[in-house]
Amino acid sequence: MPNYNTQNPPFAIFPGDVALAFNAESPTAGQASQQFALPDYSGRGEQGRTVRWQTIFASAPSAISITLQTALDDVDAHYQTIDTSTAAAGEARTVTAVNAKFIRAKLTSITGGSGVTVEVLA
């Protein structure tokens, strides 16, 4: 279940914005982050947008799996994984051709570590 499912509509992130899906938190396996709306903007067309995201840890876990998920509507069961990070030291990743209206992170598994932060740059 999402951590923050009460924000309706969810906060929107526009090109150049940085959104904190998790912000130095301690989510458990299977927990989704706050969701964000990805509004349409002029010139995007059908090619989609590029989304950059990064994982940061206050204390590095020994193993981790975090997914970046998108959906056309803000329904938990409709989110699909578009990228996965397993770098215990944290990393920055880029996903191209993203055609979605909502985005979130989901912690699949974690062993040790603390202070999970996931930044999404639209």
Please give the structural blueprint.
Blueprint: E1 18-25, E2 36-37, E3 49-59, E4 63-71, E5 80-85, E6 91-98, E7 102-111, E8 114-121
Antiparallel strand pairs: 1-8, 2-7, 3-6, 3-8, 4-5, 4-7
Task: Describe it.
The protein is mainly beta. The protein has a single domain, classed as Jelly Rolls. It is 0% helix and 51% strand. It has strands at 18-25, 36-37, 49-59, 63-71, 80-85, 91-98, 102-111, 114-121. A hairpin with an 8-residue loop joins β4 and β5 (80-85). The chain is globular, with a radius of gyration of 14 Å. The chain starts with 17 loop residues before the first strand and ends with a strand. The mean pLDDT is 89.
Record keyword descriptors for this entry.
single chain, mainly beta, Jelly Rolls, 4-stranded antiparallel beta sheet
Short précis:
The protein is mostly beta strands and 122 residues long. The protein is built from no helices and eight strands.
**SSE string, helices as H and strands as E:** EEEEEEEE
User: What is the β-strand count?
Assistant: 8
Class from secondary-structure proportions: mainly beta
Proportion of residues in helical segments: under 10%
Q: Which stretches are low in confidence, meaning pLDDT under 50 for 5 or more residues running?
A: none
| Number of helical elements | 0
> Which CATH class applies here?
Mainly Beta
CATH level-two architecture: Sandwich
**Average pLDDT rating:** 89
Strand content: over 45%
Tally of structural domains: 1
First and last CA, distance: 23 Å
Supply Rg: 14 Å
- Shape annotation: globular
What name does the CATH topology carry? Jelly Rolls
Summarize the main sheet: 4 strands, antiparallel
- As laid out across the biggest beta sheet, the strand order is 1-8-3-6
